[in-house]
Every structure is written in structure tokens, then in C-alpha cells.
Amino acid sequence: MQRERVAAILVAAGRGSRFDAGVRKQYRLLSGKPILYHTLASFCSCPDVDCVVVVVPEGERADAMQRISGWPLSCSPIVVEGGEERHHSVMNGLEAAPLECEWIIVHDGVRPFVAHALIQRVLEAARREGSAVAALTPSDTIKTRVDQRVGETLERSRLVAVQTPQAFRRSILQQAYAAAAAEGRFSTDDAALVERLGLPVALVQGDDRNIKITTPIDLAIADAIMEGWNQ
Q1: Does residue 128 contact residue 56 with C-beta atoms inside 8 Å?
Q2: Are 57 and 26 in contact (CB under 8 A)?
Q3: SS3 at position 145
Q4: Contact 95/7 with Cβ under 8 angstroms?
Q5: What phi-psi label fits residue 130: left (phi over 0), alpha (psi between -120 and 50 degrees) or beta?
Q6: pTM of this prediction?
Q7: Going by DSSP bridges, is the β-strand pair 29-30/202-205 parallel, antiparallel, or unpaired?
Q8: β-bridge partners, 10
Q9: Distances (CA, A) of 2 to 5, 17, 48, 117
């Protein structure tokens, strides 16, 4: 039986406010190539992914297409513009994904160390449960804050730090976004919208290397990870 098709939405529409002014963070160089290139290369070469949609900042589609066309990728991604907030960008990406794609993966464009094995694990779990996310048990002790004092210390074994990729049956993600729009309540985490519907979201073991590059310090860490990266 032919497997259902999969589209990956790479969200790269951020303005990079935590970097110095200048080059957008998704175009900062990592091992001589833009961060976004590494992320795209992983998804384009992944045998479990049939289509890649990359969402870029509003008003920058032409520039992004020119950049991406010069990169040695094994597929030609669909490039669309994002919106003011992350949820606008995901919604635009979802609308651009081919209708024949029954499964949707959402991933941060500035998480370049996404292994094929991790993509596969998340997809397999989503096919069982309907939705799935990559997550790690935090290594630090987590406390709540009340004003400027500690509220309580949380049991670390019950906590997870959620990453992307996150995978969903397309109809579930569409339903979650429609409900969020009706309520006027969105989230920076797509799985949180599915949780509000009362639907299950499977947890999949994430990857310590799968960092999100949001600051210059993260970029320095990424350079160190790249030395041992063999995807």
C-alpha cells in the first residue's frame, strides 16, 4: 500500500531581533553555508518527506528565492511569505502545502541539526497517535516564579522541553488552527493548539544537538556541533 504523502513546513520568517542588525539569522553562516541551507538540505534529502515549504519574512520572498536557487539542494522547496506572528507563518505554510500531503511536519528553520532518524521517529509516532513532538527531559532543575521569589520546585521527571520537528495529520492541525482563530488564542507551539482540542500528542525522544539558533552564543555552539555532525 502506498504511504500517505508528507509535507514539511520550515518556519524561517523571524526577524532575528536577538542578533545584531544586519544579515537575518537564518542566513548567518554555519560551516560556510547559511543556517537555513543546512535545515533545508536535511529535509530535502529525507526519504520520508515528499514536499518542503519554507516560510520567509513578509516582503522577502523574491530575495529568498534568489538565495535558495543558488544552493545545492536535492529538491526545489516552495517559498511563501510569513506574517506578523509565527502562527500567521505556519498558516501560510499550511495553505501552500500540496493538498495531497496528508501529514504535515512543522520545524524551525534555524534548527539545522535535524537528523533523518529524528524526523522518522516523529512521523511514526504521529501516524500512531495523530500528532507527535520531539522532546527532551530538562537537565536543569525547574522552578516556578512568583514575583522575584521561588514559587515551587517542579519534579523534573514529569517535565519535557519541546523541540521541533512536530508532526500532525493535516486535518488535525487545520482543526487546531481553526479553533485557535475562533478563540483568538494562538501559541508559539503548534502542539499546544492540538492539546486544547483534547487530542493526544505523542512524545518522542528528541536530540541534544537539535538546538535552535537564536543568539550569537547559539551560533558558537552550533559551530562546535558541526565539527562532529555527520548527517
Answers
A1: no
A2: no
A3: strand
A4: no
A5: left
A6: 0.94
A7: unpaired
A8: 54, 107
A9: 9, 44, 12, 21
Q: How far is CA 43 from the centre of its chain?
A: 11
The answer to whether 118 and 206 are in contact (CB under 8 A) is yes
Cell 501516524 -> residue: 127
Helical ranges in the chain per DSSP H: 35-44, 61-69, 86-96, 116-129, 170-183, 190-196, 216-227
* Amino acid (1-letter code) at residue 75: C
- pLDDT 10s per residue in the chain (231 long)? 678 999 999 999 987 655 666 788 999 999 999 999 999 999 999 999 999 999 999 999 999 999 999 999 999 999 999 998 999 999 999 999 999 999 999 999 999 999 999 999 999 999 999 999 999 999 999 999 999 899 999 998 899 999 999 999 999 999 999 999 999 999 999 999 999 999 999 999 999 999 999 999 999 999 999 988 765
C-alpha cell, 147: 514575583
CATH 3.90.550.10 fits 5-227, yes or no: yes
Size of the chain in residues = 231
Block residue for cell numbers 524526523: 119
* pLDDT, position 14: 80
In degrees to the nearest 10, what's the CA dihedral of 177, 178, 181, 183? -110
